[in-house]
Amino acid sequence: MVPSKLNDNILTTTDVEEKEKFYTVYGKHDFIDSQNNPRINIEDKKRICAKEVRGKYSIRMASDGSLYDPNSMFNNILSEQEIHKAVHIPYRPVKKIVFDIYMKYLQTKNNVYIRQAEREAF
Questions:
Q1: Could you count the other beta carbons within 10 Å of the beta carbon of residue 87?
Q2: Could you read off the pLDDT tens digit of each residue along the chain, which spans 122 residues?
Q3: In whole angstroms, how far apart are CA 38 and each of 32, 75, 77, 79, 109?
Q4: For the chain, first and last CA: distance in Å?
Q5: Residue 77 sits in which domain range?
Q6: pTM of whole model > 0.85?
Q7: What is the CA radius of gyration of the chain?
Q8: Dist. CA 56–CA 99, nearest whole Å
Q9: What residues does 61 pair with on adjacent strands?
Q10: Quick one: DSSP state of residue 62?
């Protein structure tokens, strides 16, 4: 991946056969990719919400077993101390349709999309 500057606020990439792609919520992103998804450059345990590794999709899980909601007013994620201690943050493999719906949630922060993704996933 080679980031290139599109304008002052949005970075886009020219994909050079990436093996891992890390996604986060809009507002905490490093750049926006060509599909308008908010992404980060490296695997950051605090910011990562979903990832794509060699065409396989997975979404971070909350401590209660539901899909991770970075905008939740309830603390359904691991505390910062637990994140730093955690060797493995739980991810759930999902189908592309679930991943796409979850990406729509990360872009818009509209709760309808995360609920729809949870219904599709479970």
A1: 4
A2: 445 545 545 555 444 456 899 999 888 899 999 989 999 988 777 788 899 999 999 999 887 788 988 888 765 455 555 555 555 678 899 999 999 999 999 999 999 999 999 999 88
A3: 5, 22, 20, 23, 12
A4: 33
A5: 2-121
A6: no
A7: 14
A8: 10
A9: 67
A10: P
User: How many domains does the chain contain in total?
Assistant: 1
Instruction: Convert 20-38 to b/e letters by CB count within 10 Å (16 or more is b).
Output: ebbbbbbeebebbbeeebb
For the record, the structure tokens of 34 come out as 């060509």
CA dist., res. 78 & res. 43, Å (int) = 16
Q: At residue 101, what are phi and psi to the nearest 5 degrees?
A: -65, -40
